[in-house]
Automatic annotation (TrEMBL):
Name of the protein in its database record: ABC transporter ATP-binding protein
GO molecular-function terms, A-Z: ATP binding; ATP hydrolysis activity
Family note: Belongs to the ABC transporter superfamily.
Origin: domain of life: Bacteria
Keywords, comma-separated and alphabetical: ATP-binding, Nucleotide-binding, Transport
Length: 316
């Protein structure tokens, strides 16, 4: 459905995107993740046809975006982080206006408006002014404008930002319902949201694509790395020496100082490959070096920690 090859976007000397390539199948829901400045907004702006890349190609349903821009735009609906709402209009007036902007014939605009409103559950507020609606309903109106014209592809930028917990649950359910018949890309910084809504994750960092994997594979990778929290008293402990000694142990992927959570203590986070148990070695090390061992606690790497690990590696 969407095939991106070698996409590069430059602003002067700065590369907002650098040779980004990926393929999204029809009906797939993809989470677009990355820290601030990763290139997410630039990628979405290119996919909507708002800006063009300096290099590379975007194919949508087999059509080259540069050569068939109008036809491609007819397939794509976009919900920006701040929906483009005219708040003095009623919902009905606004959606009819959007239908006109989409080039829908006058005789068909009312039907297009009603269909989009029905899909997003706002038919009962259709006559109200947008400025009098809650944040949750404003977001639904924004989603409705993205649907006008039976768009096959939806690009959603932070669709739940600023919503209360109930509104977030409602919006997630709505997106899940829409995903049964559409291809959707969701840009979000909330990993739990992505893991619930998406089939796969596309991870950007500093303009580079770091990963494009199925959500279940990301979770599996997270579960394959075990974490240990080691708490030591300060007496006689040299941090660099401790970290170096731990990193030498077989199966250890990484070790770093987390901080202090009790007075006169240091906590160390240790990432260990699944199948390795280094707890006995750690106890022996502490005994040999006279390190005051106060706690040794196993944990599991979370998706958030996996995200941080991948972006740190990608930015190195």
């Amino acid at each position: 459905m969407i095939k991106v090859s070698g996409l590069t976007k430059r602003y002067g000397e700065h590369r907002a995107l650098n040779q980004v390539s990926f393929h999204i199948k029809k009906g797939e829901v993809v989470g677009l993740l990355g820290p601030n400045g990763a290139g997410k907004s630039t990628l979405l702006n290119i996919l909507t046809g708002y800006i063009f890349a300096n290099e590379g190609q975007v194919l949508v349903d087999g059509m080259d975006m540069m050569q068939s821009l109008i036809a491609v735009k007819r397939k794509i609906g976009f919900l920006p982080e701040k929906p483009p709402l005219y708040k003095d209009m009623t919902v009905k007036e606004y959606l009819l206006f959007v239908a006109e902007l989409n080039g829908i014939a006058k005789k068909d605009r009312h039907q297009a408006m009603e269909k989009a409103a029905h899909h997003t559950g706002i038919t009962h507020v259709i006559k109200r002014r947008i400025k009098n609606l809650s944040k949750g309903y404003c977001q639904r109106v924004g989603l409705s404008q993205a649907l006008i014209g039976d768009k096959e592809i939806l690009l959603l930028d932070e669709p739940t930002v600023g919503l209360d917990p109930k509104q977030i649950m409602d919006m997630r359910q709505l997106i899940q319902e829409l995903s049964t018949t559409r291809t959707i890309i969701i840009s979000s910084h909330i990993l739990s949201e992505i893991s619930v809504l998406c089939d796969s994750i596309l991870l950007l960092n500093k303009g580079h694509m770091i990963a494009h994997e199925k959500v279940e594979n990301m979770i599996k990778n997270a579960l394959n790395i075990h974490q240990l929290i080691l708490r030591l008293g300060l007496a006689g402990c040299d941090q660099e020496t401790i970290i170096a000694n731990i990193k030498c142990m077989e199966g250890v992927l990484d070790t770093y100082l987390v901080g202090t959570y009790e007075s006169n203590t240091w906590d160390y986070s240790i990432s260990v490959n699944k199948g390795y148990d280094i707890r006995t070695q750690l106890v022996a090390l502490c005994h040999e070096k006279n390190y005051p061992l106060l706690m040794l606690q196993p944990t599991v790497l979370t998706l958030e920690e996996m995200f941080m690990k991948l972006t740190e590696e990608g930015g190195a």
